[in-house]
Write a structure and sequence with these properties.
The chain is an all-alpha fold. The protein is built from 7 helices and no strands.
Length: 134
């Protein structure tokens, strides 16, 4: 791979790591749950794999990416293919995220690690609040 392909993949991986853990450890109608070890779990709750997230929450995932997209583009615009439309870039990013998730069957991001790395994973989007609608 050339340097630009690596930069594009790295930018998309940042987005993947910022959002997939949220869906994996989400339980509808119930807040995030932590056991004594700090991992999101309960006797009746099993986190989803990253592939299951794409299967079960593809629309919600796309909506979240649409919300983060202005910040993502502001931060990583030099790393995305300039000839593509915004929608094409978003669809390519979603496709990359799906392929990356499917490349690790059974993968569930660590809730503890995601919390401890929150500022690195999600903080970059919070720093671009001027373009972020949340």
């Amino acid at each position: 791979k050339d340097w630009n392909e690596i930069r594009v993949a790295a930018a998309r991986k940042v987005l993947w790591s910022a959002v997939l853990w949220l869906f994996c450890h989400y339980q509808p109608r119930r807040p995030f749950i932590e056991d004594n070890n700090g991992d999101a779990s309960a006797s009746d709750f099993h986190p989803l794999t990253t592939s299951q997230v794409h299967e079960m929450y593809s629309n919600e995932l796309k909506l979240l990416l649409l919300e983060l997209w202005p910040s993502f583009q502001q931060i990583f615009s030099d790393q995305l293919e300039p000839a593509l439309t915004d929608n094409e870039k978003l669809e390519e990013t979603l496709s990359y995220m799906r392929q990356y998730s499917d490349s690790m069957p059974g993968a569930v991001p660590s809730f503890n690690l995601a919390k401890s790395e929150f500022h690195e994973r999600n903080g970059i989007f919070l720093k671009s609040r001027e373009v972020q609608p949340f």
